Automatic annotation (TrEMBL):
Keywords: Transferase. This is Glycosyltransferase family 1 protein. One of its GO terms (molecular function) is glycosyltransferase activity. It holds the Pfam family Glyco_transf_4. Residues 21-184 form the Glycosyltransferase subfamily 4-like N-terminal domain.
Length: 392
């Protein structure tokens, strides 16, 4: 570290107005950086009804609601007022967490002023078009992402699997791993509450299949619903618990009329709900990191997930859960049926998941990002950083 404290300007498309795994990780990171003496200023769209109080100093970036998804905001870029604020803050490093107009503006500012720029990858944006009938655009999205990330000094992925994918996609020559941590004061087997679960009308001997996350189609809601329909056809005893909310809720409720929809849950209430399930079914392929997968493992429950970047770095196939080819309804149903009918195997794989989850603690996780900040800053001061990625 230099004699003067590091000053980080962090740019986010959603720091606290809608709660998700990405901004939870960013807020944890800012809290850790502040505890280490790093000065941090966050720039992000805001609303009058934020989902939670932000960690650190937050500057509101002008934005518009996204059509058909008004709960999300589209930042207008690095405006003149934001540039003035940024100059007054005098950052020594830029961190961008989304390749949106605000992130692009921050990246241009950093390159213009000779500042190192680190990007964190939080979701697989290139997979989104396929859920809206626009899969033909996927190569274009990959090309645009590549242009953005190659101009950064380093990029950080939440798992080694995704990091390797980014290398194969030629996104950058400097790809590191900033994984995610778990709060075991919230997520633990002891948080299971059979009385609360019974109050929901769920019999004690009926296994519960859980869904956790935003209720949007790109999370694989169609695959989840089709798989549950297959379990019903097979007459496999089970109940479904849905934790989360979003624009596709009415569609999901129509497909799962017998499910218990709990809406958004946070803190101890979320920990209780997760621990009171019997398994997680996560068919999504869009996550860069499966926060909900890790939280479920920390509660001692097995996970059935799509074999994708959000889960395959967490779930150990056949040991702590099952990894299934994306969209394979029959195979998903086979895996869930086995857990529903074999409580001994369910307990065995849940215990293995609990052991695996203990590797993820927030301080160690966030130190990896601070180490990257320190390294690229030292390289910039020494002139070792190149101005253009050598990746062809």
């Amino acid at each position: 570290m230099p004699d003067q404290p590091m000053r980080v300007a962090l740019f986010s498309g959603n720091y606290n107005y809608v709660k998700d795994g990405a901004n939870q990780a960013l807020n944890k990171l800012v809290g850790y950086l502040l505890s280490k003496g790093v000065v941090v200023r966050v720039y992000s769209p805001t609303t009058e009804t934020p989902a939670f109080e932000p960690t650190g100093d937050l500057v509101s970036a002008p934005s518009w609601p996204i059509p058909r998804r008004p709960e999300y905001r589209f930042p207008l870029g690095l405006t003149r007022a934001l540039r003035r604020d940024l100059r007054a803050f005098a950052p020594t490093l830029i961190h961008v967490s989304s390749p949106d107009p605000l992130g692009h503006g921050a990246l241009r500012y950093g390159r213009k002023h000779g500042l190192p720029v680190v990007a964190s990858v939080h979701t697989r944006f290139e997979t989104y078009p396929r859920y809206y009938g626009l899969a033909v655009l996927e190569p274009l999205v990959v090309a645009l992402l590549r242009r953005f990330y190659r101009r950064c000094d380093a990029i950080m992925a939440p798992s080694e699997t995704l990091a390797q994918m980014l290398r194969e996609q030629r996104m950058s020559y400097d790809v590191g791993v900033w994984t995610r941590g778990i709060d075991d004061s919230i997520f633990a087997p002891a948080k299971r509450d059979t009385i609360w679960r019974s109050a929901l009308g769920i019999p004690a001997d009926t296994p519960v299949i859980g869904y956790i996350g935003r209720l949007v189609m790109e999370k694989g809601l169609d695959v989840f619903a089709d798989t549950v329909a297959e379990l019903r056809r097979r007459q496999v005893a089970h109940r479904v618990m849905v934790i989360g909310d979003g624009p596709a809720r009415s569609w999901f409720e129509h497909r799962l009329p017998d499910a218990r929809f709990l809406g958004f849950q946070t803190g101890p209430e979320l920990g209780r709900a997760v621990a009171s399930m019997d398994m997680l079914f996560n068919p999504s392929v869009t996550e860069a990191f499966g926060n909900v997968t890790l939280e479920t493992m920390a509660c001692g429950l097995p996970v059935v997930a799509a074999q994708a970047t959000g889960s395959d770095s967490l779930v150990k196939e056949g040991v702590s859960g099952r990894l299934i080819r994306p969209g394979a309804i029959g195979q998903f149903a086979d895996a869930l049926e086995l857990y529903c009918t074999n409580p001994g195997l369910r307990a065995q794989h849940g215990e293995a998941g609990l052991d695996l989850s203990k590797r993820n603690r927030w301080d160690a996780v966030n130190q990896a990002m601070l180490d990257t900040y320190t390294r690229v800053s030292a390289q910039r001061r020494s002139g070792a950083l190149i101005s253009r990625s050598p990746v062809p």
